[in-house]
Amino acid sequence: MGQLIRLERTGTPAFFKRHPALKCLKSKLIDYKRVDGANTTSINLFFDRFDTPEVQHIPLRHTHNADEIGLMEGVGDNGMVVGESYRKFVLVKDHQKRTWTSILECVSGDGRVLDPLIIFAGKYVQQQWFPDKDNEVYATWKFETSPNGWTNNNIVLE
């Protein structure tokens, strides 16, 4: 195994001259469970389910597209790593336990938009998580909790 050394963006130009296929890149953390769960078998199974007659006959008003983003508490996005020069960033697998907050948005096939759903890690939604002011923007939003801050079947069915 190679030796670990700290590289600075501008501190080692000779290294990068000797290795033009490499450069300093911004790193983006991704939870190891998401990396390990994204495999060919599970992805193919997911898309194979769309080819069934039962799914093909679902009306647009009952077909929804959801978009989810997760925010990890306490993680900066300023890490630099050495990676292949043609890339813009490198995904770095993160094994650390962090507090997650998930945000979901959903639209139906016929254009109806559901209210956003925010899922905090915890047992109960707590008032101190929100601004003191009464803000109409959030009046229709839904707020939930789950043990890890991720969505689950129970939350989606509610």
H-E order: HEHHHEEEEEEH
Mean pLDDT: 78
Helix content estimate: 10-25%
* CA(first)-CA(last) distance: 50 Å
Topology, number of strands: 7
| Gyration radius, rounded | 21 Å
Any low-confidence stretches, pLDDT <50, length ≥5? none
3D structure, described in words:
The chain has 158 residues and is of the alpha/beta class. It has one domain (13-157). 19% of the residues lie in helices and 34% in strands. The chain contains five helices and seven strands, in the order αβαααββββββα. The strands form two sheets. A four-stranded mixed sheet has the order 2-5-6-7, with no helix packed on it. A three-stranded mixed sheet has the order 3-1-4. It comes from Fusarium flagelliforme. Residues 97-157 form the DDE-1 domain. This is Dde superfamily endonuclease.
Secondary-structure topology with pairs:
Blueprint: H1 13-18, E1 22-31, H2 32-37, H3 40-48, H4 53-56, E2 64-72, E3 80-84, E4 89-94, E5 100-108, E6 113-121, E7 142-146, H5 153-157
Parallel strand pairs: 1-4, 6-7
Antiparallel strand pairs: 1-3, 2-5, 5-6
List the defining traits of the structure above.
three-stranded mixed sheet; alpha/beta; 158 residues
Gist of the model:
One of its GO terms (molecular function) is endonuclease activity. Keywords: Endonuclease, Hydrolase, Nuclease. The chain has about 160 residues and is an alpha/beta fold.
